[in-house]
Amino acid sequence: MAETGTISPPEARSDAEWREALSPEQYRVLREHGTERAGTSCLNAEKRRGTFTCVGCGAPLFETGTKYESGSGWPSFFAPLEGAVDTTVDRSHGMARTEVHCARCQGHLGHVFDDGPAPTGLRYCMNGVAMHFEPAD
After folding, report:
1. What burial class does residue 89 get, using C-beta atoms within 10 Å of its C-beta: 0-12 exposed, 13-18 middle, 19+ buried?
2. Fold of 15-135
3. Residue 57 is a catalytic residue
4. What is the pLDDT at residue 137?
5. What are phi and psi of 90, to 5 degrees?
6. Which DSSP category does 126 fall into?
7. Which of 54, 57, 105, 125 is catalytic?
8. What confidence tens digit (pLDDT) does each residue in 40-91 have?
9. Which residues lie closer than 8 Å to 111 by C-beta, 6 or more apart?
10. d(C-alpha 56, C-alpha 22), whole Å
11. Measured distance CA(106)–CA(102) in Å, rounded
């Protein structure tokens, strides 16, 4: 258990600590595998050089150079940073999809699909509420 006045590292946080650290919408997406409404994230329009990080633990996830406009309504990338994400099979909603999690805190980020651009052919369709943008400058 965390000492009074401190919060456990993200990978060891209790549910109460997660609720304290995140907004209700961030909690719903990261911890309950929710999805934000399409077209609502300010990160859709983000084009500055920088890094998209996990809102739950601050781990770097994606660089601006891998972001592209997919037309899906969510921030999309063709590749994560090496070792930044883990994937699992999501069988909810009567289909099998590949769910993407932060490798450090296991927060739900979104899903990856095989309809993206070269060079990977992948579309990492991420919930903007699950990420923070850190400009390079």
Report:
1. exposed
2. 2.170.150
3. no
4. 79
5. -110, 115
6. E
7. 125
8. 999 999 999 999 999 999 999 999 999 999 999 999 999 999 999 999 887 8
9. 90, 97, 98, 99, 100, 125
10. 7
11. 5
